């Protein structure tokens, strides 16, 4: 048992055993704080972009600017995370995000923030997040015993879901009371706290770095691509996740136009919908975390995409806001099950020396693909309205889920069975 753990955690299943570790407690507490700030920030800047432009396209561009840098930087960040101190890299990345949020708040308060500058600043934050993601997530196996890794990965997603629930609950009233400035400033404080909390982690030297540099950075980046491309389980799982994310996740990234055009509501409606998504994700995350095993995770990953597509169709097809809240909760739950299951499978199947690079590609999927989907939906929404393009995307997502279902036996053998 790792230092700081407690046998009492076993009474609460896999999740309790994972959270009995001292380092895990510190790590996940900081995660909740920083991600709560992140969700407040996301809602604030999305609403700000909508107020500045009244255009779904520009709201999509703000989401794209935050998430798209992952396309360029995630593979590089993964290679760096495998060869430098992961704790220090995480701290540096979180510090940049804190400074970016403070800059947005300051320039807005002084009347110097334009939509162009906002895009540039969000791109800076997105670049930093591309480096933080593989470095931070690569530390997870050092926080808990290996048997509890699935629960730790689930807990990581659970923290995101908790933040997704708390963040909107804070953002709506805060924006209504003081505008966007205090909401974005809150994110700066949250990330500063997360950065400083990393100093308290007791991570073994062997886990702080994947390996000593073995060649050029480009060679190591390409080695990561080759490793994933040749892996018979990770390759199809990543392709499936990427395609599904492009088609489905854009809806969550550009909620303000849906809120106003389909349901004729303001920041309160946006906060309620975001909180409903977070609530669904929270309960689903708790279930997956306490499930605590790899067996069946591949089927969960595929099935959850089909459920999310159906729930999203229900969300956009109705004009009745309470039903939309229910659909939002279901799609949040399905997205949580898919994300937790997919990341757990990748964490478990990847070699230690390749973990940062594999997780960086997963980070690219979770950041760049929603950005692409958001931009496409925002653009299509200006021409055809939001409802029909969204329904078409969900029907395509169901087709992708059927494709993945046909490859389940191979993926299960390569990802769930020890080799």
SSE arrangement:
Layout: H1 13-19, H2 22-53, H3 56-67, H4 69-81, H5 86-109, H6 115-137, H7 149-178, H8 180-197, H9 205-208, H10 217-230, H11 234-248, H12 250-253, H13 255-263, H14 267-291, H15 297-317, H16 321-349, H17 355-384, H18 387-405, H19 408-415
Q: How does the helix and strand content classify structurally?
A: mainly alpha
Strand content: under 5%
Low-confidence stretches: 1-11
Order of helices and strands: HHHHHHHHHHHHHHHHHHH
The CATH superfamily is identified as MFS general substrate transporter like domains
> What kind of sheet is the major sheet?
none
Describe this structure in words.
This protein is mainly α. It has one domain: Growth Hormone, Chain: A (Up-down Bundle). Helices cover 80% and strands 0% of the residues. The chain has 19 helices and no strands. The protein has helices at 13-19, 22-53, 56-67, 69-81, 86-109, 115-137, 149-178, 180-197, 205-208, 217-230, 234-248, 250-253, 255-263, 267-291, 297-317, 321-349, 355-384, 387-405, 408-415. α2 packs antiparallel against α3 (56-67) and α15 (297-317) runs antiparallel to α18 (387-405). It starts with 12 loop residues before the first helix and ends with a helix. 60% of the residues are buried. Residues 1-11 have low confidence and may be disordered. The chain crosses the membrane at residues 26-50, 56-80, 101-121, 174-199, 234-251, 271-289, 296-317, 323-346, 358-378, 384-405. Keywords: Cell membrane, Membrane, Transmembrane, Transmembrane helix, Transport.
